[in-house]
Amino acid sequence: MALGFKKPIKPDDPRLKGKETEYQASRGGWFPREKKPVPGAPKK
Questions:
Q1: Where are the beta strands (DSSP E) in the chain?
Q2: What is the rounded distance in angstroms from the CA atom of residue 19 to the CA atom of residue 12?
């Protein structure tokens, strides 16, 4: 219900895309995942 959904939703629900977080004990909480570079993509 944290995102305002009325019922529990499945982890693969498309509405959750971009909201993934992971727990980082060194920082003391839940933070968005770091964006990792795509192999073979040109550097800017």
A1: 21-24, 29-32
A2: 12
